[in-house]
Structures are given as structure tokens and as C-alpha cells.
């Protein structure tokens, strides 16, 4: 279980990745609202999750669990809907997770139920543009494209954060 995907849907994982989801058909069927992840501490070297964390009720607890199961040096990639996109608060989403929240998880781990020995170190943030970014750019040609993508409603589809698990 060195490489896992959380919330990959009701399908088996990629050839080198174990998919853990509450939907039947996943490699491991698991309800994230139960709290702890079904794997041993320090066993994961690569964790990927896309459009899953906003569905999890105890989101801070699952981030703490991600830290628990990942070993030092593990790569963690989290993708969430951009907080200003209309899909961020659609039915079934319990949270809107902003890039600021991700930064707080990395910069202030003591404020959350995270392991005392590890933390997330933010390596990169990427904002995936949505089609509305083009029309905003035409309407406001003096605004920088990155500003539009990060700050205008529906101009960014998702935020992709790549982190590394490091010692605290």
C-alpha cells in the first residue's frame, strides 16, 4: 500500500495505486466519516485525492490521518474545488476548502488534530482555469490573468496542492 488514492470512486485503482472509497467497486471500501484510515502508520509514500475531502465530515481528522499513514518524505497531492466556483458548495459537499485553509494545515499544524511528529510542507499550488476565465479576461483586459483565475467567481475549477510530509 505504498501508493494510494483516497476517494477514487467505485473503481479499482490505477495499476500502481490502491483506491480507497466508500463506493462499492473500490479496492478498499471505507467510509471516511469513520475517522481513521485502514492502514498502518508510516506506510504510504504517495497519496493522491481529488474532489474527495470536501465530502468528508471530519475533514481535519482525515488530514491528520493522511499525516499518520504517510511516512516522512511522502508526496501528498490534494485537489479540491476552487472556493469561488459554483461547484464548491454543491449538494454533498460539507466544506469549502480554500488555498488559505491548505496553507494553514501546512503552517499551523498545532491548531488541528495532527500528529506531533509530522507536518505538511507546501511545495506548490496550481489553479486550474475554467472556461469563465476567458470571458472575464476579455471583459477586464487590464487585470492579470492569474488574478482573474484566483479571485473571480467560476474562473477557476480546482486548486491542486502538492505537499511533502516532513518532520515537525
Name the features:
4 helices, single chain, 168 residues
Q: What report would you give on this structure?
A:
It is a single chain. The protein is an alpha/beta fold. 21% of the residues lie in helices and 32% in strands. It has helices spanning 59-69, 99-107, 132-139, 145-151; strands at residues 3-6, 18-21, 28-29, 44-50, 70-81, 118-129, 156-167. The longest helix is centred in the middle third of the chain and has 11 residues, at 59-69.
The shape is globular
Rounded to an integer in angstroms, the radius of gyration calculated over CA atoms is 17 Å
Please report the distance between the alpha carbons of the first and last residues: 24 Å
What proportion of the residues form beta strands (DSSP E)?
25-35%
Number of helices: 4
Structural class: alpha/beta
Overall pLDDT confidence: 91
Helical content, roughly? 10-25%
SSE ordering: EEEEHEHEHHE
Secondary structure: elements and pairs:
Blueprint: E1 3-6, E2 18-21, E3 28-29, E4 44-50, H1 59-69, E5 70-81, H2 99-107, E6 118-129, H3 132-139, H4 145-151, E7 156-167
Parallel strand pairs: 1-2, 1-4, 2-3, 4-5
Antiparallel strand pairs: 5-7, 6-7
Give a summary of the structure in a few sentences.
With 168 residues, this protein is α/β, with parallel strands linked by helices.
